[in-house]
Each structure stands twice: as structure tokens, then as C-alpha cells.
Design goal:
Strand content: 5-15%
Radius of gyration: 22 Å
Mean pLDDT: 91
Structural class: alpha/beta
Oligomer: single chain
């Protein structure tokens, strides 16, 4: 095989899209026979990838983008019933455009032979395009191996039970987990009777149809789960290639933000003592109501810790805005809080998470436990306090605290839609715990950071797994000459 091209279809959500692009770049660096074309799905749910795409076009000649035609979104009332169902239906509507784009690439004499289609989790229904065109397909999973185990189990459970999960159901015995998993920890969609559960089952039923599953994790981080997949002969090959991180974007302003924001944040951090600041950040979708914001403020004040707090409010249209101005904050937060905190803390809107975690002044991280954030905290040796909010984040928090001992428990089963409010005393205790200088969690996280870096080196577990993936792509290549 002289040259080959992979087509990747990531979803536009920030964590999904950038991880996919970083993986594509790593694949190209590992083997210059490969080029990657990314099919760009436009979505109002997250417009930021448009800006990332433009900057990347200038940086890598083996990486190409094709803008697909826009499609009409599903009816807006479906979004209120189940975001997961809405997203699946939305990306399914791109299938004809995906097929047209790939057909054009196949027929273009100037394009390298196509070696396969790499799909995001929410794009798995596009496997049928690969089947129709005689191409291998691969899943690129931005979550960890524990979540993969849940999705592989789900079709079996659906065949046996056939209905949504209930909190009263007994704990699940999942092969990828050491201990039984309480149902209340599962993604909320699995209890959703208005399309969420059906959407998850629909996606889960396609996991075994791909030629391989590429997971953004490290074998040494999740050995129990990885071994459980090897014991099941019906599971496609699993390739652990993590950590796939946004290292290439460190030092750049986030799309949609003002570069001045980054500079102010980094200047403030530069003035703080080493390992003295706790960083609170809840992802691109994370926001709280006023009652919870007041409890967070009281918890911060009571803990006595320096802090950087990424705080954004939702507007009347439901979209997250930039950081509130001081007048608005003074109205929301406890009376006098801003004056009492003075230079002890900084409140911002967006923050460059990876760059902040790498700063010498950061000593702890209160996180929503999205998998990308977990890997970033390990890479930088920063312990986390768990505050999961959406999707599989509760599942991630459970594993970190109960199985791996790699995080401080703040909450494991937080559900915003249920009206949960975490009180100041609980927050204060977790802040003190995550900032403890000689804790076992801090020691283990620093060790995992060293393991993460070794995994990517020549001879490391993820480097070896990536090499195995490349070899298998070549073998599965419809036009391979096994050269």
C-alpha cells in the first residue's frame, strides 16, 4: 500500500470534534502514507469547530476538510424531550450527503484509495454508508473503556428487558467494572422514556458492526475493562490510543472567545503561589442556577482556597453567555463576597482549560468529569473533585473515586434536572480535600500523569496500539497490497 485515505465523521461538539482532529493528526504523524479527510457537519449546537477547521487547514497538508450541505434540524420540541434522540436524528439526516461526498472521493482519480470510514459515537448509523460502498468502518470513542463496556452490554440487556432503566432496578453487573454499578449512576438518557433510551440502544446495537473500536484511553488506566473485551470473542478489536489531548491548541485563544480573556487569566495565575489555586470548570455546557452559585461561593470562601472559577449564565434563549459583569455577579452571589475575596480569586467566563491545568499555580480541579477533562487533569498531575453533570459523567466519577482512587468525591450522582443543590459545607470539604498537598489521590494522579506520557512514547502501550491499528487498517484496506 503506497497511500491511503481515511474519512472521519466527528460530531461538532467541542470535545468530540477536537479529539477526532487530534487523533487524525497523530495518525498522519505516525505513518505518512495516510491522509485524512474530515467531513464537516454544520450544527448550531456548537459552531466553534468552524474556527478550528480554518486554523487547521493551514497547518497540515495531509488533513483535509469537506463542508457538507446544511440540513434542516429535527423539530425543536424533540430537543426538550431528549437531547440524545434529537442529536441522533439530526446526524442521520446527513447520511445522503456523507454518501455523496465519499462517492465523489472514490471516483476522483487524484484521491488516494479510501481505507475506511471513522465515525463518532453519534454518527454510528453512517456505518451503512461504509457497508454500501464496500469500506471498513471504525468507531472513534471519545469516552473511556468503562463507558464502552456499558454500551456493549446494553443490547443484551435490551433483549432481555426491553424497557428503560428505573432507579429501583438492582445494581448492574458489568464485565468492564470491578464493582456493581448503581442504576442512578448511568447516563440519564437510559431512563428517558421519550426517545433517550431508544437512541442509546440504537447506537449500542451498531458497536459490534464496526471493524475496530478506537478508544481515547490508556491500557494502564483501565486494565480491568480492556481485559474484559479480550475475553469476548464477539467484540471488534479495541485499540487504546490515549491520551488524545488538545495539546496543539495550548496557547491559542478558544474559538468564540476574546484573546484578551486568556491573557488576563494567565497574568492572574502568574501572580499566584505554586499549587495554590483550585480551578472550577464545568465544560462547554455547564451552568448552574443562582441558588447553586451562591453555595459554591460560600464553599469557596469557607475553604480559604485561592480559586479560578469559570462561571457562565444561560440567557433567555438557553445559550451560555460570557462571564457576567461585576454588577450581575454582586446581585447573584452572597452579599459582599466579591469584596471579601479580593485578589484571592478570579471569576471568568471561558477559560483555556488545558493551559490552565498546566500552569504551576494550579493545585486542584473541580470538574464535571467529561472524559477529555479527566485525561487532561492526569496529564498535568492535577487531582480532581468530582461534580458530574451530563451524559456518562456520573459513570466516570464513580470509577475515578470508587475503583481507581484517582479523584476526591464531591458528588457522584448529581442531577441538575432533579433539582439537586450541593451545599456549601459539602463543597468546602471537597475543596480542602482536593488541595491537600500530600494526599494519596494527589500522589496517584501524578503517577498516572507519568504513565500517560510514557504511553505515547515509542514502545509505550498507546504507541503500540496505534501501530496495531495502522497495520489492521492496511490489512482491511479494500485495495491493500500488504506492502
Amino acid at each position: 500500500m503506497k497511500r491511503a485515505e481515511l474519512v472521519m465523521v466527528p460530531t461538532p461538539g467541542h470535545g468530540h470534534y477536537i479529539s477526532a482532529v487530534e487523533f487524525a493528526r497523530r495518525l498522519i504523524r505516525a505513518d505518512d502514507r495516510f491522509s485524512v479527510t474530515i467531513l464537516h457537519l454544520r450544527s448550531s449546537l456548537d459552531p466553534h469547530p468552524d474556527i478550528f477547521k480554518k486554523s487547521l487547514l493551514l497547518s497540515d497538508t495531509h488533513l483535509h476538510f469537506i463542508d457538507l450541505p446544511s440540513v434542516d434540524p429535527p423539530p425543536s420540541h424533540l430537543l426538550q424531550k431528549s437531547m440524545e434522540q434529537y442529536i441522533v436524528l439530526f446526524y442521520e439526516s446527513f447520511i445522503p450527503h456523507v454518501k455523496d461526498a465519499i462517492t465523489h472521493l472514490i471516483s476522483n482519480p487524484d484521491s488516494p484509495p479510501l481505507a475506511g470510514l471513522v465515525l463518532d459515537f453519534f454518527c454510528l448509523p453512517m456505518i451503512d454508508v461504509a457497508i454500501d460502498l464496500g469500506l471498513p468502518s471504525y468507531l472513534f470513542l471519545t469516552s473511556g473503556a468503562g463507558f464502552l463496556g456499558l454500551m456493549l452490554y446494553l443490547p443484551t440487556r435490551h433483549t432481555q428487558v426491553g424497557t428503560e432503566f428505573e432507579d429501583s432496578d438492582p445494581d448492574l453487573e458489568l464485565p468492564s467494572f470491578v464493582h456493581p454499578v448503581p442504576v442512578r449512576i448511568l447516563p440519564a438518557a437510559l431512563s428517558n422514556k421519550h426517545g433517550g433510551y431508544a437512541a442509546y440502544v440504537k447506537l449500542a446495537q451498531r458497536f459490534r458492526d464496526v471493524n475496530g473500536i478506537v478508544v481515547n484511553t490508556i491500557t494502564e488506566l483501565e486494565p480491568y475493562a480492556i481485559e474484559s473485551f479480550a475475553d469476548d470473542g464477539q467484540i471488534p478489536p479495541v485499540y487504546t490510543v490515549g491520551p488524545v489531548l488538545e495539546i496543539g491548541f495550548v496557547g491559542q485563544a478558544h474559538p468564540g472567545s476574546d484573546g484578551v480573556d486568556r491573557d488576563k487569566i494567565m497574568e492572574w495565575l502568574d501572580a499566584q503561589p505554586e499549587a495554590s489555586v483550585v480551578f472550577l470548570c464545568f465544560g462547554s455546557w455547564g451552568s448552574f442556577g443562582e441558588a447553586q452559585l451562591r453555595e459554591i461561593a460560600l464553599g469557596l470562601e469557607g475553604s480559604g482556597q485561592r480559586f479560578l472559577w469559570a462561571l457562565r449564565l444561560r440567557g433567555p434563549d438557553g445559550k451560555l453567555g460570557e462571564a457576567p459583569d461585576r454588577t450581575t455577579l454582586a446581585e447573584i452571589l452572597p452579599e459582599g463576597f466579591l469584596d471579601r475575596m479580593g485578589e484571592m480569586g478570579m471569576i471568568c467566563g471561558w477559560a483555556p482549560q488545558m493551559e490552565v491545568l498546566a500552569h504551576k499555580s494550579i493545585g486542584g480541579f473541580v470538574s464535571h468529569c467529561r472524559w477529555n477533562s479527566i485525561l487532561e487533569s492526569f496529564w498535568n498531575g492535577i487531582p480532581m473533585a468530582t461534580w458530574p453533570m451530563h451524559a456518562e459523567q456520573q459513570l466516570n466519577a464513580l470509577r475515578l473515586v470508587k475503583e481507581l482512587g484517582l479523584a476526591v468525591e464531591l458528588r457522584l450522582d448529581y442531577r441538575q434536572k432533579r433539582g439537586d443543590v450541593v451545599m456549601a459545607g459539602e463543597i468546602e470539604g471537597a475543596l480542602r480535600g482536593v488541595m491537600e498537598a500530600e494526599s494519596m489521590v494527589r500522589k496517584k494522579v501524578k503517577e498516572m500523569g507519568e504513565i500517560s506520557r510514557r504511553a505515547l512514547m515509542d514502545g509505550g502501550s498507546s504507541s503500540i496500539s496505534l501501530g496495531r491499528l495502522i497495520n489492521d487498517i492496511i490489512i482491511n484496506h479494500p485495495h491493500s497490497t500488504n506492502q
